């Protein structure tokens, strides 16, 4: 199979897994989100280490793995903490809508970078964000505490966008298994330290059962796919998952709930679909190496 086809299949699979996650019932005995993510990243990192341990330290210098570790925590671990903090004041639907701004952040990051790429993606990214806001209601908090949590969520969105661009550059010289080891273990350590210092560390042997569930297995597959796509797919393309996933979820809602079709839903769906398609399939110029799939 052609490499590009494999990459697009991986992207579609990642979006489908995330968009259909609601189908699998949550376990009432599950660990807190940050701690569960720490364990999943740890399992992924240790599993990859068993295969990549030979020559890992020789293949990567100290500065390389340090940069990769810090960037991966900014991309994955820290946003987990900030999202968890914001969930008390902002609904999951609102969070999904706000994260539709990630492609715009990536486009701005590319436009202001040394490559000067991404300018033509900014307009469709902003249009997509507008479409997401039409589809997914966002109830802004009305208190100081809620405003601080909203600011934290905006910081998470900026981190994801900026770190996505940097991560793509860093991973071009790193083998896949090495990347899984560093990204997995770095985020596992960060999240576990956060849980311990925050007083939310609840791990017990009898609470490990949910980690072996179908939902956790799917989460591990998503981690493996995401690390691979961070290396293989240009950041502006990969950021479109924040548009495709809510779009698929809305389509699922149409099929299952069969709501009344309103002008707002129609316009929002049209804007989100058209903009996501542009970001995914618009031609990339040869002089934009950081966005090239070749």
TrEMBL record:
Superkingdom of the organism of origin: Bacteria
Keyword Transmembrane helix in record: yes
Regions that span the bilayer: 37-52, 64-87, 93-114, 121-138, 150-168, 175-196, 208-230, 242-261, 267-284
UniProt KW keywords: Membrane, Transmembrane, Transmembrane helix
Protein name, entry field: EamA-like transporter family protein
Organism listed in the record: Edaphobacter aggregans
Organism phylogeny: Bacteria, Pseudomonadati, Acidobacteriota, Terriglobia, Terriglobales
């Amino acid at each position: 199979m052609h490499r590009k086809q494999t990459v697009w299949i991986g992207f579609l699979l990642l979006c489908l897994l995330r968009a259909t996650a609601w189908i699998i019932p949550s376990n009432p005995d599950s660990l807190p989100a940050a701690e569960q993510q720490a364990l999943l990243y740890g399992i992924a990192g240790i599993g990859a280490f068993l295969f990549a341990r030979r020559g890992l330290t020789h293949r990567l210098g100290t500065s390389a793995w340090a940069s990769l570790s810090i960037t991966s925590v900014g991309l994955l671990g820290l946003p987990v903490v900030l999202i968890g903090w914001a969930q008390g004041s902002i609904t999951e639907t609102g969070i999904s809508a706000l994260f539709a701004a990630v492609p715009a952040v990536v486009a701005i990051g590319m436009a202001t970078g040394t490559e000067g790429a991404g300018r033509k993606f900014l307009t469709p990214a902003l249009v997509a964000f507008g479409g997401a806001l039409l589809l997914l209601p966002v109830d802004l908090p009305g208190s100081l505490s809620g405003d601080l949590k909203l600011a934290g969520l905006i910081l998470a969105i900026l981190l994801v966008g900026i770190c996505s661009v940097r991560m793509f550059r860093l991973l071009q010289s790193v083998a896949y298994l090495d990347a899984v080891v560093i990204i997995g273990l770095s985020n596992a350590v960060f999240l576990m330290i956060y849980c311990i210092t925050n007083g939310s560390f609840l791990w017990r042997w009898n609470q490990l059962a949910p980690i072996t569930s179908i939902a956790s297995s799917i989460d591990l597959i998503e981690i493996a796919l995401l690390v691979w796509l961070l290396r293989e797919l240009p950041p502006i393309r990969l950021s479109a998952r924040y548009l495709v996933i809510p779009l698929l979820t809305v389509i699922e809602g149409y099929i299952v709930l069969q709501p009344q079709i309103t002008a707002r839903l129609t316009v929002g769906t049209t804007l989100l679909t058209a903009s996501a398609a542009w970001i995914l399939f618009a031609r990339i110029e040869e002089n934009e190496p950081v966005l090239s799939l070749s």
